[in-house]
Amino acid sequence: MIFFAAAGAVLLPPVIFLLILQARRMRRLAAQVSEGALFRNMVNQVRDVAVTMHDMADGGRVIFANDAACLHFGVSRETLLTWRPPNWNPTVGAADIAALYRKLKHGDSDTLETMHRIATGDLVPVEVMLLCQVHEGAPVIIAYTRDIRARKAEEARRLAYERAEGYAHDLNERKRLEALLQRREHSYRTLVENLPDPLFRYDTECRRTYVSPAVERATGKPASELVGRTPADAPLVAGAQNERLLADIRHVLASGKPVVSEMAYQAPDGRLRQFQNHFGPEFDANGAVTGVLSIMRDITELKRLETLMRKREEEFRALVENSPDIISRYDLDCRRVYTNPRGVASLGGDLARILGTTPADLPGGEPGARYLEAIGDVIAQGKERSIELEWRTGGPETCLHVRMCPEFDVHGRVSHVLAIGRDISEIDEYRRVIHRQAFSDALTGLPNRTLLSDRIRHAIADAAYHGHQFGLMMLDLDHFKEINDTMGHGAGDALLRMAAQRLQASVRPYDTVARLGGDEFSVLLPNMRKGDDLATVAGKILHELAEPFEVEGQELFVSCSIGIAMYPDDSTGFDALYKYADSAMYHAKQMGRNNFQFYQPEFTRRSQDRLELEAALRRAQKRGELMLYYQPQIELQSGGMVSAEALLRWRRDGYGIVAPDRFIPAAEVCGLIIGIGEWVLRTACGDVVRWNQGRAVPVRVAVNLSTRQFVRNDLAGSVRRILEETGCDPAWLELEITESLLLEDSREVAATLEALHGMGLSISIDDFGTGYSALSYLNRFPVSQLKIDRSFVQGVPAERDKCELVKAMLSIAAALRLETVAEGVETAEQAEYLMAHGCRLAQGYLFGKPMPLAQFGALLLEQDAPVQ
Ligand SMILES: Nc1nc2c(ncn2[C@@H]2O[C@H](COP(=O)(O)O[C@H]3[C@@H](O)[C@H](n4cnc5c(=O)[nH]c(N)nc54)O[C@@H]3COP(=O)(O)O)[C@@H](O)[C@H]2O)c(=O)[nH]1
C-alpha cells in the first residue's frame, strides 16, 4: 500500500479530474508522505533483493522498483518503471501474467526460479518470490527478486562434478561386475573342470552339450567324441545300460524331477568301475526344462567297502551269535533289545519271551536286582562297569562276570548298554580252591592259622563291643611225632584227619577248630560265659581223643595237651592270647600230657625260662660246658664191668651240674639235640677208644639217642663218620633208643636201624616196659638188647606184680635171644632176684652212680688191676 501510494504519487497524469482525485489523494498521502519516504528508504537499503511492484491491471507494469532492482536490470528507475514482464522475459505474455494473478489469491505468495534478461542482454538466473496484493481495489504483485547466478553456478559445478563421479562409478561398477562374473565363471569352470566326478550336460534332444574332463579320465573317451552327440550316437556303456541311461535322461526331461541310478563303466585300464549317476533337470527363467545335468560319482571303492562292511558285519554277527559269552543290549529302560543265542539259552531258550525283559524279570531275584541296578548306574554315569553274578536259570548255578559298556548316540548321550557276560564258574571254583588253600588246612579241611587269626581278631572286637568273654585253646597231640616218624606220614595224616573230626565234633558249630600245622590245633570258643564252660569243653576234647584211633589196621591211643587263655581275664590282645594259650599248653605237656591247663601268669615266666635255657644251652656248647658222666654196667654173674652208659651233664655257671632231664627236652624242642647228640657220640667213642687201648677184653659204651636224631638227619652217616674219625670199633658202641621210636613203624627209622646194625653196632631198647603194649616190633627191628626199666626193677622182689612183669620181660628176651640189662639196681636183693631169673647184666647205684670221666677211668683201672 505504501508502495502503491508512492508509485501513484510518481506516476499519475496531471488532468483536472484526476487532479481533483489526485489532490484528494495527495492530501491523504501528504499526511503519509513523510512515512512513505521512510519506508522507501528502507526498501532501497535492501541491496541484494530487487523489489518491484507491478500493476496487474496494466499488464504487470513496474510501478515501484528499489535501487537493487535498477541495478539488477541495469536500467534507470525511469526506464524500469515503463517495463512490463516481457521486457525481461520475452517468453512471458500478458496471458501468463493474468494466469499468474489468478493463480495467486490475495495475500498468497509463490516462489519460482526463472531467467531475467537484463540490459546487457545476458540471461540471469533469479529466484522470485511473488506476493499478490490488492490496493484500493487495484491488483498489484510485489516481486522480490534475488540474483542466483552464484548459486546456480555452484549447483552446475556440483552437478557436473556429480555427473562425472557417477559416470566413473557406473563404469567401475560395470567393470567390477564383469570381473566378478569372469572370476566366478573361471572359478566354476575350474571347479567343474577339476571335479573328480564326471559331469555331462544334455539338451532337450539328449545331446551332450558339455562333458567335463573327468569323463575322459573315467572312460577314456575325449570330450570331442562326445559333445554334440547323444548317448545313442556315441555310447559310453553298452546295450541295456545305455538304454537305461537314455531312459533316465528322458524321464528327467519329461518330469522335471531328478533321477539317481547306478551303472558300470569300463575304465581306460579295462577294469569295470561302479558309478552312481545323478540326473538333475535344468530350467529356464519360465521354469521350462532346458536340459539335464548329470553328475557321475565313482562308487567302486564305496561298494567295495560296503561289501567289506557287510562281510565284517556278517563275521561279527557270526562271532556274537556263536560267542560262548552272553551278549545282550539294553535300552534306557534296562530292557533287552538284543540277546545272542548263548544268552537266550542261559535265559530259558525263548528269544521272543526274553526280548523286552529286564534283569529283574530274568533271571530275577537278588542277582537280577543287582544286575538291574548296575545297568542303571552305567546309563546314569555313562561309564563302564563290571560285576559278578551267581546266575541260575534252570540248569546248574553259573558264576558270570558281566562287563557293561555304555553306547552313545550322535549327541554323546547314552542310548544303550552293551553287556557281555562271561561264564567264570571254573575260575570261581579255582578261586574258591585258592581261598580254601589260603585259609584252610589242606589235610584236614579245617581253618588254618591265617583264618584263625582273623576270627580271633573278630572275636576280640565282638567281645569288646558286647562285653563278652571268650576262650582260646592251643592243643597238641601227645607223642604224635613218634607215631608219624615210626608209622609213616600216611598214617600220621590219617590220624590227624580223624583227630580233626573228633575235635570238630566236640565243639559248637560256631566255634572254630583250626589246624596250625603238624599236630598243633587250636579251638576258638566265642561268647563263653565262664571258665567252667571252657573246662567242660576241654574235658570233652580229652575224652574224645582218648578213644582209640584205628589207623592202617592198628589201634592207636593218642592223648593231647591243651592250654587255655581267656579274653579278657588273661589278656585283651591278640598276640598275648595266642602266646598265653601256647604257654598253658606247654605247661600241660610238662604236667605229664593228656590234660588241660588254664593260663597262669607264672607260665610266662616259665616260658621265658625255657627261652633263656635254650640260649644258655647254645652258649654251653660253644663254651664246652657239656660233659659226659659214665655209669658202669656189670655182669651179674662175675661182677665184672662190661660196659658204661654215657650220661650227659651240663656244668652250668651258677647252677652246678645240671641233669639231662632238665635240658634235653628243651634241646629236642629247639633242635639243639642234633648237634649235642653228635658231640655225645664223638666224645663217648673217643673215650671208649682210649679205655680199650691195650685192654685184653674191651669194654663197650652205651649212648642214648633221641628220637629227633632219627628224623631227616642221616644218623647212620654221622655215626659212620664218627666211628672213622675216632677209630672206634663198632662192636664197642651200643645205641640206646626208646620203645616209642620203634612203635612208630617208620621206614626211615627202620632203614637207619638196619644201617646201624649193618655197621656192627648193637641196638638197645631203653626203659623197656614203660611204653606201648605192642611187642611185634621186637621181631621187625634189629634189636639186640632190652633195658628193663628202673620202675620195674625197684619193685622186686617185694612187689609181686613187678616181679611177674620182670620175669615176663626176661622170658620174652630169652625167647627172642635178646640180651637184658636191668636198670636202677640199688640193692643186692634186686641183683640176686634178677640174676636168679636170667638177667645177665645190671646197672645201678649198687654198682656205681654216673661219674665223671676221670673217676670212671680210675674205676676201670682199678678193675683191671690184678687182685692182690
Ligand atoms: N638223648 C640223650 N638222653 C640222655 C643223654 N644222657 C642222659 N640221657 C637221658 O636222660 C635221662 C636221665 O638221665 P640221668 O639223669 O643221667 O639218669 C640216669 C641215671 O642217673 C639214673 N640211674 C641209674 N641208676 C640208678 C639207680 O640205681 N637209681 C636211680 N634212681 N637212678 C639211677 O637213670 C638214668 C639212666 O637211665 P637210662 O638212660 O634209662 O638208662 C635218661 O633217661 C637218659 O636216657 C644223652 O646223652 N642223650
TrEMBL record:
<dbReference type="InterPro" id="IPR000160">
    <property type="entry name" value="GGDEF_dom"/>
</dbReference>
<dbReference type="InterPro" id="IPR052155">
    <property type="entry name" value="Biofilm_reg_signaling"/>
</dbReference>
<dbReference type="GO" id="GO:0071111">
    <property type="term" value="F:cyclic-guanylate-specific phosphodiesterase activity"/>
</dbReference>
<dbReference type="InterPro" id="IPR035919">
    <property type="entry name" value="EAL_sf"/>
</dbReference>
<feature type="domain" description="GGDEF">
    <location>
        <begin position="468"/>
        <end position="601"/>
    </location>
</feature>
<protein>
    <submittedName>
        <fullName>EAL domain-containing protein</fullName>
    </submittedName>
</protein>
<dbReference type="InterPro" id="IPR001633">
    <property type="entry name" value="EAL_dom"/>
</dbReference>
<dbReference type="InterPro" id="IPR001610">
    <property type="entry name" value="PAC"/>
</dbReference>
<dbReference type="Pfam" id="PF00563">
    <property type="entry name" value="EAL"/>
</dbReference>
<dbReference type="InterPro" id="IPR013656">
    <property type="entry name" value="PAS_4"/>
</dbReference>
<feature type="domain" description="PAS">
    <location>
        <begin position="184"/>
        <end position="256"/>
    </location>
</feature>
<dbReference type="InterPro" id="IPR043128">
    <property type="entry name" value="Rev_trsase/Diguanyl_cyclase"/>
</dbReference>
<dbReference type="InterPro" id="IPR029787">
    <property type="entry name" value="Nucleotide_cyclase"/>
</dbReference>
<dbReference type="Pfam" id="PF13188">
    <property type="entry name" value="PAS_8"/>
</dbReference>
<feature type="domain" description="PAC">
    <location>
        <begin position="259"/>
        <end position="311"/>
    </location>
</feature>
<dbReference type="InterPro" id="IPR000700">
    <property type="entry name" value="PAS-assoc_C"/>
</dbReference>
<dbReference type="InterPro" id="IPR035965">
    <property type="entry name" value="PAS-like_dom_sf"/>
</dbReference>
<dbReference type="InterPro" id="IPR000014">
    <property type="entry name" value="PAS"/>
</dbReference>
<dbReference type="Pfam" id="PF08448">
    <property type="entry name" value="PAS_4"/>
</dbReference>
<feature type="domain" description="EAL">
    <location>
        <begin position="610"/>
        <end position="864"/>
    </location>
</feature>
<dbReference type="Pfam" id="PF00990">
    <property type="entry name" value="GGDEF"/>
</dbReference>
<dbReference type="GO" id="GO:0071732">
    <property type="term" value="P:cellular response to nitric oxide"/>
</dbReference>
